[in-house]
Specification:
This protein is mainly alpha-helical. It contains 29 helices and no strands. The chain has helices spanning 16-39, 48-53, 64-76, 80-93, 97-105, 109-117, 122-136, 141-146, 151-156, 163-179, 181-190, 192-201, 215-223, 231-247, 251-256, 259-276, 283-296, 300-304, 313-330, 335-346, 350-358, 362-367, 373-387, 391-397, 402-410, 415-431, 435-441, 444-449, 458-470.
Protein backbone atom coordinates (compact mmCIF):
# COMPACT_ATOMS: atom_id res chain seq x y z
CA UNK A 1 0.00 0.00 0.00
CA UNK A 2 2.71 2.43 0.98
CA UNK A 3 5.04 1.90 -1.97
CA UNK A 4 2.23 2.63 -4.40
CA UNK A 5 1.84 6.14 -3.04
CA UNK A 6 5.43 7.32 -2.96
CA UNK A 7 5.26 8.87 -6.40
CA UNK A 8 2.32 11.03 -5.35
CA UNK A 9 4.19 12.77 -2.54
CA UNK A 10 5.00 16.40 -3.04
CA UNK A 11 8.47 17.84 -2.45
CA UNK A 12 9.15 18.98 1.07
CA UNK A 13 8.45 22.71 1.15
CA UNK A 14 8.43 23.31 4.87
CA UNK A 15 11.85 24.33 6.15
CA UNK A 16 12.85 25.42 9.62
CA UNK A 17 12.06 29.11 9.09
CA UNK A 18 8.65 28.32 7.65
CA UNK A 19 7.93 26.04 10.59
CA UNK A 20 8.93 28.79 13.01
CA UNK A 21 6.82 31.38 11.22
CA UNK A 22 3.79 29.11 11.20
CA UNK A 23 4.18 28.28 14.88
CA UNK A 24 4.56 31.93 15.87
CA UNK A 25 1.44 32.95 13.95
CA UNK A 26 -0.58 30.15 15.52
CA UNK A 27 0.68 30.95 19.01
CA UNK A 28 -0.02 34.68 18.56
CA UNK A 29 -3.64 33.87 17.71
CA UNK A 30 -3.85 31.50 20.68
CA UNK A 31 -2.40 34.06 23.08
CA UNK A 32 -4.84 36.73 21.93
CA UNK A 33 -7.76 34.34 22.40
CA UNK A 34 -6.52 33.35 25.88
CA UNK A 35 -6.13 36.99 26.97
CA UNK A 36 -9.61 37.87 25.77
CA UNK A 37 -11.13 34.83 27.46
CA UNK A 38 -9.29 35.48 30.72
CA UNK A 39 -10.38 39.11 30.66
CA UNK A 40 -14.07 38.22 30.68
CA UNK A 41 -13.95 35.06 32.79
CA UNK A 42 -16.27 34.95 35.77
CA UNK A 43 -15.26 33.85 39.23
CA UNK A 44 -17.31 32.01 41.81
CA UNK A 45 -16.76 32.68 45.50
CA UNK A 46 -18.13 30.08 47.86
CA UNK A 47 -17.14 29.50 51.46
CA UNK A 48 -16.03 25.85 51.66
CA UNK A 49 -16.55 25.78 55.42
CA UNK A 50 -20.12 27.03 54.97
CA UNK A 51 -20.79 24.51 52.21
CA UNK A 52 -19.53 21.67 54.44
CA UNK A 53 -21.58 22.92 57.39
CA UNK A 54 -24.67 22.80 55.19
CA UNK A 55 -24.00 19.12 54.62
CA UNK A 56 -23.09 19.29 50.93
CA UNK A 57 -26.79 19.17 50.00
CA UNK A 58 -27.65 18.36 46.41
CA UNK A 59 -28.75 21.47 44.51
CA UNK A 60 -32.43 21.22 43.54
CA UNK A 61 -34.58 23.33 41.24
CA UNK A 62 -36.92 25.63 43.12
CA UNK A 63 -40.38 26.40 41.77
CA UNK A 64 -42.20 29.75 42.00
CA UNK A 65 -44.08 28.75 45.14
CA UNK A 66 -40.91 27.68 46.95
CA UNK A 67 -39.06 30.85 45.96
CA UNK A 68 -41.96 33.02 47.13
CA UNK A 69 -42.10 31.15 50.44
CA UNK A 70 -38.36 31.56 51.06
CA UNK A 71 -38.56 35.28 50.25
CA UNK A 72 -41.59 35.66 52.57
CA UNK A 73 -39.79 33.94 55.43
CA UNK A 74 -36.63 35.97 54.79
CA UNK A 75 -38.67 39.17 55.01
CA UNK A 76 -41.16 38.36 57.74
CA UNK A 77 -39.79 35.39 59.67
CA UNK A 78 -40.27 35.65 63.42
CA UNK A 79 -36.67 34.83 64.33
CA UNK A 80 -33.50 36.02 62.63
CA UNK A 81 -32.23 32.43 62.36
CA UNK A 82 -35.41 31.45 60.51
CA UNK A 83 -34.94 34.34 58.11
CA UNK A 84 -31.29 33.43 57.55
CA UNK A 85 -32.14 29.76 56.89
CA UNK A 86 -34.68 30.82 54.26
CA UNK A 87 -32.03 32.85 52.43
CA UNK A 88 -29.52 29.99 52.67
CA UNK A 89 -32.08 27.66 51.04
CA UNK A 90 -32.78 30.24 48.35
CA UNK A 91 -29.05 30.68 47.70
CA UNK A 92 -28.55 26.96 47.25
CA UNK A 93 -31.46 26.85 44.82
CA UNK A 94 -30.00 29.76 42.85
CA UNK A 95 -26.95 27.65 42.07
CA UNK A 96 -29.15 25.96 39.45
CA UNK A 97 -29.62 27.87 36.13
CA UNK A 98 -33.30 26.94 35.93
CA UNK A 99 -34.01 28.37 39.38
CA UNK A 100 -32.22 31.57 38.35
CA UNK A 101 -34.54 31.98 35.34
CA UNK A 102 -37.64 31.37 37.47
CA UNK A 103 -36.37 33.81 40.10
CA UNK A 104 -35.79 36.79 37.77
CA UNK A 105 -39.18 36.28 36.10
CA UNK A 106 -40.93 36.40 39.46
CA UNK A 107 -42.29 39.88 40.12
CA UNK A 108 -40.66 41.68 43.01
CA UNK A 109 -38.01 39.02 43.65
CA UNK A 110 -34.97 41.23 42.97
CA UNK A 111 -36.59 44.12 44.84
CA UNK A 112 -37.05 41.88 47.88
CA UNK A 113 -33.44 40.68 47.67
CA UNK A 114 -32.16 44.27 47.46
CA UNK A 115 -34.29 45.15 50.48
CA UNK A 116 -32.63 42.36 52.46
CA UNK A 117 -29.20 43.46 51.20
CA UNK A 118 -29.82 46.92 52.66
CA UNK A 119 -31.29 45.71 55.97
CA UNK A 120 -29.62 46.40 59.30
CA UNK A 121 -29.08 42.69 60.01
CA UNK A 122 -25.50 41.72 59.08
CA UNK A 123 -26.20 38.01 58.58
CA UNK A 124 -29.18 38.71 56.33
CA UNK A 125 -27.12 41.22 54.36
CA UNK A 126 -24.39 38.64 53.83
CA UNK A 127 -26.80 35.92 52.68
CA UNK A 128 -28.63 38.33 50.36
CA UNK A 129 -25.26 39.30 48.85
CA UNK A 130 -24.45 35.61 48.37
CA UNK A 131 -27.75 35.15 46.53
CA UNK A 132 -26.85 38.03 44.22
CA UNK A 133 -23.41 36.52 43.71
CA UNK A 134 -24.95 33.22 42.55
CA UNK A 135 -27.07 35.19 40.06
CA UNK A 136 -24.01 37.15 38.87
CA UNK A 137 -22.26 33.91 37.98
CA UNK A 138 -25.00 32.91 35.52
CA UNK A 139 -24.08 32.44 31.86
CA UNK A 140 -27.32 34.20 30.83
CA UNK A 141 -26.96 37.96 30.32
CA UNK A 142 -30.63 38.46 31.26
CA UNK A 143 -29.87 37.22 34.76
CA UNK A 144 -27.00 39.69 35.15
CA UNK A 145 -29.13 42.57 33.91
CA UNK A 146 -31.83 41.66 36.41
CA UNK A 147 -29.30 42.48 39.15
CA UNK A 148 -28.99 46.13 38.03
CA UNK A 149 -31.05 47.50 40.98
CA UNK A 150 -28.42 46.11 43.38
CA UNK A 151 -25.28 47.61 41.82
CA UNK A 152 -25.35 50.99 43.57
CA UNK A 153 -25.59 49.25 46.95
CA UNK A 154 -22.80 46.81 46.11
CA UNK A 155 -20.61 49.82 45.24
CA UNK A 156 -21.49 51.53 48.50
CA UNK A 157 -20.50 48.48 50.53
CA UNK A 158 -17.00 48.51 49.03
CA UNK A 159 -16.21 51.19 51.60
CA UNK A 160 -17.38 49.00 54.49
CA UNK A 161 -15.32 47.42 57.26
CA UNK A 162 -15.91 43.70 56.69
CA UNK A 163 -13.22 42.29 54.39
CA UNK A 164 -15.38 39.21 53.67
CA UNK A 165 -18.33 41.36 52.64
CA UNK A 166 -16.12 43.65 50.52
CA UNK A 167 -14.62 40.62 48.80
CA UNK A 168 -18.09 39.23 48.02
CA UNK A 169 -19.21 42.57 46.57
CA UNK A 170 -16.04 42.77 44.44
CA UNK A 171 -16.56 39.29 43.01
CA UNK A 172 -20.22 40.01 42.26
CA UNK A 173 -19.54 43.34 40.56
CA UNK A 174 -16.74 41.75 38.54
CA UNK A 175 -19.06 39.02 37.27
CA UNK A 176 -21.78 41.51 36.36
CA UNK A 177 -19.37 43.82 34.51
CA UNK A 178 -18.06 41.17 32.13
CA UNK A 179 -21.53 39.84 31.31
CA UNK A 180 -23.52 42.88 30.26
CA UNK A 181 -22.93 46.20 28.50
CA UNK A 182 -26.02 47.53 30.29
CA UNK A 183 -24.34 46.87 33.65
CA UNK A 184 -21.14 48.63 32.53
CA UNK A 185 -23.10 51.66 31.33
CA UNK A 186 -24.82 51.90 34.70
CA UNK A 187 -21.76 51.37 36.88
CA UNK A 188 -19.56 54.06 35.33
CA UNK A 189 -21.83 57.02 36.25
CA UNK A 190 -22.50 55.37 39.61
CA UNK A 191 -18.79 55.84 40.37
CA UNK A 192 -17.27 52.37 40.15
CA UNK A 193 -13.78 53.71 39.31
CA UNK A 194 -13.39 55.96 42.39
CA UNK A 195 -15.09 53.27 44.50
CA UNK A 196 -12.52 50.70 43.43
CA UNK A 197 -9.69 53.20 43.95
CA UNK A 198 -10.94 53.90 47.46
CA UNK A 199 -11.22 50.17 48.11
CA UNK A 200 -7.61 49.61 47.07
CA UNK A 201 -6.40 52.37 49.41
CA UNK A 202 -8.63 51.29 52.28
CA UNK A 203 -7.03 50.05 55.47
CA UNK A 204 -9.62 47.27 55.39
CA UNK A 205 -7.89 45.92 52.29
CA UNK A 206 -4.23 46.23 53.27
CA UNK A 207 -2.01 47.83 55.88
CA UNK A 208 0.57 48.92 53.33
CA UNK A 209 0.26 52.09 51.33
CA UNK A 210 -0.51 51.79 47.63
CA UNK A 211 0.57 55.36 46.99
CA UNK A 212 3.94 54.81 48.62
CA UNK A 213 5.14 52.13 46.22
CA UNK A 214 5.04 51.09 42.60
CA UNK A 215 2.40 48.60 41.57
CA UNK A 216 4.72 45.60 41.14
CA UNK A 217 6.41 46.25 44.50
CA UNK A 218 3.03 46.61 46.15
CA UNK A 219 1.81 43.35 44.63
CA UNK A 220 4.96 41.63 45.89
CA UNK A 221 4.32 42.91 49.43
CA UNK A 222 0.72 41.72 49.38
CA UNK A 223 1.49 38.28 47.99
CA UNK A 224 4.48 37.32 50.12
CA UNK A 225 3.63 33.93 51.64
CA UNK A 226 3.75 34.02 55.43
CA UNK A 227 1.68 34.21 58.59
CA UNK A 228 0.57 37.80 57.90
CA UNK A 229 -0.82 37.01 54.46
CA UNK A 230 -4.46 37.99 54.02
CA UNK A 231 -5.37 35.42 51.38
CA UNK A 232 -8.64 36.99 50.23
CA UNK A 233 -7.16 40.46 49.77
CA UNK A 234 -3.98 39.12 48.17
CA UNK A 235 -5.99 37.14 45.65
CA UNK A 236 -8.03 40.22 44.73
CA UNK A 237 -4.90 42.31 44.08
CA UNK A 238 -3.33 39.54 42.02
CA UNK A 239 -6.45 39.29 39.87
CA UNK A 240 -6.55 43.09 39.54
CA UNK A 241 -3.04 43.01 38.09
CA UNK A 242 -4.03 40.12 35.84
CA UNK A 243 -6.99 42.01 34.38
CA UNK A 244 -4.85 45.13 33.85
CA UNK A 245 -2.31 43.03 31.93
CA UNK A 246 -5.03 41.30 29.88
CA UNK A 247 -6.44 44.72 28.94
CA UNK A 248 -2.98 45.65 27.56
CA UNK A 249 -3.41 49.23 28.76
CA UNK A 250 0.30 49.85 29.38
CA UNK A 251 2.11 46.57 29.82
CA UNK A 252 5.34 48.09 28.54
CA UNK A 253 5.36 50.41 31.56
CA UNK A 254 4.78 47.50 33.95
CA UNK A 255 7.67 45.62 32.36
CA UNK A 256 10.09 48.55 32.50
CA UNK A 257 9.18 49.00 36.18
CA UNK A 258 10.40 45.46 36.84
CA UNK A 259 7.16 43.49 36.82
CA UNK A 260 8.83 40.42 35.27
CA UNK A 261 11.51 40.31 37.96
CA UNK A 262 8.97 40.93 40.72
CA UNK A 263 6.61 38.23 39.50
CA UNK A 264 9.52 35.83 38.95
CA UNK A 265 10.63 36.24 42.57
CA UNK A 266 7.03 35.83 43.66
CA UNK A 267 6.81 32.57 41.73
CA UNK A 268 9.86 31.28 43.64
CA UNK A 269 8.20 32.20 46.94
CA UNK A 270 4.96 30.47 46.00
CA UNK A 271 6.81 27.30 44.97
CA UNK A 272 8.58 27.28 48.33
CA UNK A 273 5.27 27.89 50.10
CA UNK A 274 3.44 24.92 48.52
CA UNK A 275 6.24 22.67 49.75
CA UNK A 276 6.01 23.77 53.37
CA UNK A 277 2.34 24.56 53.92
CA UNK A 278 -0.95 22.70 53.74
CA UNK A 279 -2.86 25.90 52.95
CA UNK A 280 -5.52 24.66 50.55
CA UNK A 281 -6.17 28.15 49.21
CA UNK A 282 -2.68 28.84 47.94
CA UNK A 283 -3.58 27.81 44.39
CA UNK A 284 -5.91 30.83 44.30
CA UNK A 285 -2.78 32.99 44.40
CA UNK A 286 -0.68 30.86 42.10
CA UNK A 287 -3.18 30.97 39.24
CA UNK A 288 -3.27 34.77 38.67
CA UNK A 289 0.49 35.09 39.24
CA UNK A 290 1.22 32.44 36.60
CA UNK A 291 -1.23 34.11 34.21
CA UNK A 292 0.35 37.53 34.76
CA UNK A 293 3.80 36.18 33.92
CA UNK A 294 2.52 34.25 30.91
CA UNK A 295 0.82 37.27 29.38
CA UNK A 296 3.66 39.71 30.08
CA UNK A 297 6.13 37.40 28.35
CA UNK A 298 4.16 37.76 25.10
CA UNK A 299 4.73 41.53 25.00
CA UNK A 300 7.33 43.01 22.66
CA UNK A 301 8.65 45.06 25.58
CA UNK A 302 9.61 41.83 27.36
CA UNK A 303 12.16 41.13 24.63
CA UNK A 304 13.39 44.73 24.63
CA UNK A 305 14.34 44.67 28.32
CA UNK A 306 15.86 41.23 28.18
CA UNK A 307 12.65 39.37 28.94
CA UNK A 308 13.21 35.98 30.50
CA UNK A 309 16.81 36.85 31.42
CA UNK A 310 15.39 38.71 34.43
CA UNK A 311 13.60 35.59 35.64
CA UNK A 312 16.67 33.63 36.80
CA UNK A 313 16.33 30.72 34.40
CA UNK A 314 17.02 27.54 36.38
CA UNK A 315 15.36 28.67 39.59
CA UNK A 316 12.19 29.72 37.78
CA UNK A 317 12.01 26.47 35.81
CA UNK A 318 12.56 24.41 38.97
CA UNK A 319 9.90 26.45 40.80
CA UNK A 320 7.45 26.03 37.95
CA UNK A 321 7.89 22.25 38.00
CA UNK A 322 7.26 22.22 41.75
CA UNK A 323 4.02 24.06 41.04
CA UNK A 324 3.14 21.68 38.20
CA UNK A 325 3.52 18.77 40.60
CA UNK A 326 1.36 20.65 43.11
CA UNK A 327 -1.29 21.22 40.44
CA UNK A 328 -1.18 17.57 39.41
CA UNK A 329 -1.87 16.44 42.96
CA UNK A 330 -4.19 19.19 44.21
CA UNK A 331 -5.68 21.08 41.26
CA UNK A 332 -5.24 19.34 37.86
CA UNK A 333 -7.35 21.98 36.13
CA UNK A 334 -4.49 24.46 36.65
CA UNK A 335 -1.90 22.33 34.84
CA UNK A 336 -2.55 24.09 31.50
CA UNK A 337 -1.84 27.46 33.14
CA UNK A 338 1.59 26.32 34.31
CA UNK A 339 2.40 24.69 30.99
CA UNK A 340 1.36 27.81 29.10
CA UNK A 341 3.87 29.77 31.15
CA UNK A 342 6.54 27.16 30.41
CA UNK A 343 5.68 27.46 26.73
CA UNK A 344 6.08 31.24 26.79
CA UNK A 345 9.34 30.97 28.71
CA UNK A 346 10.89 28.50 26.27
CA UNK A 347 9.48 29.93 23.02
CA UNK A 348 12.30 32.43 22.42
CA UNK A 349 14.80 31.53 25.10
CA UNK A 350 17.56 28.94 24.55
CA UNK A 351 18.60 29.39 28.19
CA UNK A 352 15.24 28.20 29.51
CA UNK A 353 15.38 25.24 27.12
CA UNK A 354 18.86 24.50 28.46
CA UNK A 355 17.47 24.60 32.00
CA UNK A 356 14.85 22.00 31.12
CA UNK A 357 17.60 19.69 29.89
CA UNK A 358 20.18 20.37 32.63
CA UNK A 359 17.60 19.82 35.38
CA UNK A 360 16.51 16.50 33.78
CA UNK A 361 12.93 17.72 33.40
CA UNK A 362 12.16 16.33 29.96
CA UNK A 363 11.08 12.97 31.38
CA UNK A 364 8.75 14.47 34.04
CA UNK A 365 7.30 16.60 31.26
CA UNK A 366 6.60 13.51 29.15
CA UNK A 367 4.79 11.88 32.08
CA UNK A 368 2.18 14.67 31.92
CA UNK A 369 1.08 13.54 28.46
CA UNK A 370 -1.32 11.05 30.01
CA UNK A 371 -3.30 13.72 31.91
CA UNK A 372 -5.49 15.09 29.10
CA UNK A 373 -5.44 16.13 25.45
CA UNK A 374 -5.20 19.82 26.41
CA UNK A 375 -2.17 19.12 28.59
CA UNK A 376 -0.65 16.90 25.87
CA UNK A 377 -0.81 19.69 23.28
CA UNK A 378 0.98 22.09 25.63
CA UNK A 379 3.65 19.56 26.60
CA UNK A 380 4.35 18.81 22.93
CA UNK A 381 4.47 22.54 22.18
CA UNK A 382 7.13 23.03 24.84
CA UNK A 383 9.12 20.13 23.39
CA UNK A 384 8.82 21.78 19.96
CA UNK A 385 10.28 24.95 21.48
CA UNK A 386 13.25 22.94 22.70
CA UNK A 387 13.76 21.04 19.42
CA UNK A 388 13.51 24.25 17.43
CA UNK A 389 16.70 25.54 19.08
CA UNK A 390 18.79 23.20 16.93
CA UNK A 391 20.83 19.99 16.79
CA UNK A 392 22.47 20.33 20.21
CA UNK A 393 19.04 20.41 21.87
CA UNK A 394 17.58 17.61 19.75
CA UNK A 395 20.42 15.34 20.84
CA UNK A 396 19.05 15.48 24.38
CA UNK A 397 15.51 14.71 23.27
CA UNK A 398 16.09 11.74 20.98
CA UNK A 399 15.56 8.88 21.22
CA UNK A 400 15.09 8.17 24.96
CA UNK A 401 11.43 8.06 25.95
CA UNK A 402 10.45 10.41 23.17
CA UNK A 403 10.24 7.88 20.34
CA UNK A 404 7.79 5.45 22.02
CA UNK A 405 5.90 8.44 23.43
CA UNK A 406 5.39 9.98 19.99
CA UNK A 407 4.27 6.65 18.57
CA UNK A 408 1.64 6.58 21.35
CA UNK A 409 0.43 10.14 20.69
CA UNK A 410 0.18 9.44 16.96
CA UNK A 411 -2.22 6.62 17.81
CA UNK A 412 -4.65 9.09 19.39
CA UNK A 413 -7.70 10.49 17.62
CA UNK A 414 -7.31 14.10 18.80
CA UNK A 415 -6.14 16.12 15.79
CA UNK A 416 -4.44 18.81 17.89
CA UNK A 417 -2.34 16.27 19.76
CA UNK A 418 -1.44 14.46 16.54
CA UNK A 419 -0.69 17.73 14.74
CA UNK A 420 1.69 18.86 17.47
CA UNK A 421 3.34 15.42 17.47
CA UNK A 422 3.91 15.73 13.72
CA UNK A 423 5.46 19.14 14.16
CA UNK A 424 7.86 17.80 16.79
CA UNK A 425 8.82 14.91 14.54
CA UNK A 426 9.44 17.31 11.66
CA UNK A 427 11.90 19.30 13.76
CA UNK A 428 13.65 16.16 15.00
CA UNK A 429 14.01 14.79 11.46
CA UNK A 430 15.56 18.08 10.32
CA UNK A 431 18.03 18.45 13.18
CA UNK A 432 18.76 14.93 14.40
CA UNK A 433 20.54 12.53 12.04
CA UNK A 434 19.11 9.07 12.33
CA UNK A 435 15.76 10.15 13.83
CA UNK A 436 13.85 9.39 10.63
CA UNK A 437 15.47 5.98 10.30
CA UNK A 438 14.69 5.08 13.92
CA UNK A 439 11.12 6.21 13.35
CA UNK A 440 10.80 3.99 10.26
CA UNK A 441 12.18 1.00 12.12
CA UNK A 442 9.51 1.42 14.82
CA UNK A 443 6.57 1.24 12.37
CA UNK A 444 6.33 5.01 12.24
CA UNK A 445 4.99 5.12 8.69
CA UNK A 446 2.02 2.96 9.66
CA UNK A 447 1.30 5.42 12.47
CA UNK A 448 1.30 8.28 9.96
CA UNK A 449 -0.97 6.46 7.55
CA UNK A 450 -3.80 6.50 10.08
CA UNK A 451 -4.03 10.27 9.63
CA UNK A 452 -3.52 10.69 5.89
CA UNK A 453 -7.16 11.41 5.20
CA UNK A 454 -7.72 13.83 8.09
CA UNK A 455 -8.12 17.24 6.48
CA UNK A 456 -6.40 19.23 9.24
CA UNK A 457 -3.38 16.90 9.18
CA UNK A 458 -3.11 15.98 5.50
CA UNK A 459 -0.33 18.40 4.50
CA UNK A 460 1.77 17.79 7.59
CA UNK A 461 1.50 14.02 7.30
CA UNK A 462 2.65 14.08 3.68
CA UNK A 463 5.52 16.47 4.38
CA UNK A 464 6.69 14.26 7.21
CA UNK A 465 6.40 11.11 5.11
CA UNK A 466 8.57 12.74 2.47
CA UNK A 467 11.19 13.74 5.03
CA UNK A 468 11.25 10.28 6.60
CA UNK A 469 11.65 8.54 3.25
CA UNK A 470 14.04 10.88 1.49
CA UNK A 471 15.36 13.00 4.44
Amino acid sequence: MWSGRRGLLRPLGCGVEELRCRRREREAALRKARREQQLVSKRLLRDEATEEAEGGCVVVILGEAEIQEFLRLAQRGIEEKERERALVSLRRGLQHPETQQIFIRLEGSIRTLVGLLTSNQALLQLEAARCLHELSHSEQSAVAEACLPATSYLLTYLSGHSSDFIELCLYTLGNLIVESEAVRRQLLPQGIVPALAACIQSSASTDSSVLGSTLPQHILQLLQPGPKLNLGVAVEFAWCLHYIICSQVNNALLITQGALTTLGLLLLDLAAAVQRTKNAGLELLVCPVVRCLSNLLTEAAAETVGGPVHLRDERVVAALFILLQFFLQEQPSLLPEGLWLLNNLTANSPSFCTSLISLDLIEPLLHLLSVSNVVSVLVLTVLCNVAEKGPAYCQHLWPGLLLPTLLDTLALSDTEVVGQSLELLQLLFIYQPGAAQAFLQQSGLQALQRHEEVAQLHDRVHALQQTALHG
